[in-house]
């Protein structure tokens, strides 16, 4: 069975990605690793540093030691750290949370609203879009606080209100925790609403089911070249 390790930096992230897998690829086995001190420390420090990268490398190597077919990160504010893990563990597939969604947005083109409730996400993620895409960042203040407090209705309402009356070619919800607001956003905008969990699952399934030569991705993942050093 295909096995994917999910690495989370927000406690709100496991639910949306597990729901996306349940809908789009229920046959896989999922393993969740959560360290919510990552997001708390980033919010306090205000920037990524070498220490944070080392923490991500340690997490990635531990995840790789579990013998997965792929590793998927689910917090969009740590792009440089995730890229370091991808390089460290190659050729094991390591995916940042937003890559597949950005590809879907780029295929639509035009003017894209990039929505986040965790401000550091908007410091690193816009640069990941192709230069020919017009990205307008939308930070929804207080929505993550509402989600932390358990007020999911207020969270979704605040996100939708931030987009109401605006016109885009697509709306990209940058964080996994934002996927739950997709329906509320779709009700107030006349554009496709893209979520990171659904896009990531679709891309991973295409990639892992199209392994060259028909060899199972699981067999490749367990070969010595795909395992992290102890």
Structural domain tally: 2
Low-confidence stretches: 213-230
- Give the class from helix and strand content and strand pairing: alpha/beta
Radius of gyration: 17 Å
Coarse morphology: globular
CATH-assigned fold name of the largest domain: Rossmann fold
Structure description:
By secondary structure, the protein is α/β, with parallel strands linked by helices. The protein folds into two domains: 3-97 and 198-226, Rossmann fold; 99-196, Rossmann fold, CATH 3.40.50. It is 45% helix and 16% strand. The protein contains eleven helices and eight strands. The protein has helices at 14-24, 37-45, 50-65, 79-89, 99-108, 121-124, 143-148, 152-163, 182-186, 196-209, 217-221; strands spanning 3-8, 29-34, 70-73, 94-95, 111-116, 134-139, 170-173, 193-195. The strands form two sheets. Strands 2-1-3-4 form a four-stranded parallel sheet, sandwiched between helices. A four-stranded parallel sheet has the order 6-5-7-8, with helices on both faces. β7, α9 (182-186) and β8 form a beta-alpha-beta unit. α3 crosses α4 (79-89). The longest helix has 16 residues, at 50-65. Mean pLDDT is 90; it is low at 213-230.
